[in-house]
Amino acid sequence: MSDLSARLALPFIAPSQAQKHVTHNEALQQLDLLVQMRVEGVGVTAPPVAPDPGALYALGAGAQGDWAGQDGQLAAFLNESWLFFSPQEGWQAIDLSTGGTWIYRGGSWQNALDQLESVGIGTTADAVNRLAVAAEATLLSHEGAGHQLKINKATLPDTASLLFQTGWSGRAEMGLTGSDDFAIKTSSDGVGWSLAATFAADTGAVGFGDGQPPQYGGHLRIADPNLGNARLELQAGDAGPDSYAMIEHASAGGDSSQMIFSVNAATNALIDFNPVDDGSSGAAVRFFRSTNSTGLATLTLHQADGSSGWEHRIAGNSDTTLSLSHDLGVGTTNPNAKLTVQGNVTPGTDNAFNLGSATHRWSSIWAVNGTIQTSDERDKHVENRIDPALATDLIRQVDPVFFKWKAGGNELCDIPGDDPVPLNTDQIAAARADPIEPHEIAPVYLHTHKGKRTHAGFLAQDVKRAMDAAGIDFGAWGIENLDATDSRQFLRPDQLIPVLWAAVRYLLEQQKA
């Protein structure tokens, strides 16, 4: 028979043993330490300087000082010395420093709440619902700052979601269900589910109705899962049916559709995109003012035959922009070019805007009369008369040339050739005669062809060198960007005429003399 008990290794009193009280007291001391065990700390490695009698510590790895070589043991301070006990599988202890409960499992002290198979609070947990709570509320709070509730799934096709039920039957679910897009689903019976909304993981774009994210580059998509009308209702306050606005995209028959912006379902729609049955092909676009709004400027485009049946209006302020893929007529119903104006065209502010630029030039300008330039002496500060000798010297230094343009013109083509330049979506829409969806636009390329005909003129660089040599500068020569010496240079031929005039007068006077 062993001299120690099987579980706590308490010493037995032997038959006819002398000093029985010593063995009995030793057993009581161990019971006092190990039963209802309380430790001053778990994983401690350095003995305290002044431990209290009966203090018990669960030692960690690397024990030092009087605890050296006792890693993993229980150290008790009794009678001014340390006693050591070997913990056994399943022993439990309360850590007085933290209030936590520890259990000796697998050769080490572990938090008693770690690796639990299941927990039921007010109810019974099962193999699937390993944490079950039956209560009026469940509180998850912060510990001085923020707080996160994390739901993690293994792979993309798995599910990480919150499921809301009525009588254990699902009614709503939100989370990552079968993909990494955040989705919201609803159900009336827990069997059939409707995908109400999807938030794309890569772009954040939102899709409502059928739950699909925008498919053509948009940020918000609203669709009817039953292939009916898609509507967005805007409610103002709690005024009920007397104050709301509706945006509706509806089928108008065949392959056409309409978008209607309305207020209180009244006929004074703010904007109505609607195919019009006026006997012609295509659709009409109508921009209306609400019946109680005033002060908006409008652009009205009548039908091609001039009838007053349908009017198409665009209302806005001075910043309104109009972009058309077909010819536009202003003051005429028969445009013969991209823009046809029946009347005068003037800038909004005098002497403030240019027609074209160094990089966006017109190929040719047709006119009956030449350009009229303001030349009233009241608009000019005359610095001096042109020196005839200087004018003659300039003419001598500048040689007129015959030349051909390196870039004789540009053409738009569907087939790439030598050095094609692809156009962007806005350029293609402006270049084509038929309106098409942006996602359906085929590639269009800009081809530059060499000049064929010989022209006569001057070289801007020659004129600049002659002016520099003469020590003068005037507006006959110019450069696109004064800060970029390699930018394109240009001439104003009209300002060369006075120079030529002064030189001719000088030669006439010389001849007369």
TrEMBL record:
Span of domain Peptidase S74: 375-513
InterPro entries reported in the protein's UniProt record: DUF2793, Endosialidase_C_dom_sf, S74_ICA
Pfam families according to UniProt: DUF2793
Descriptive protein name: Chaperone of endosialidase
Originating species: Roseovarius lutimaris
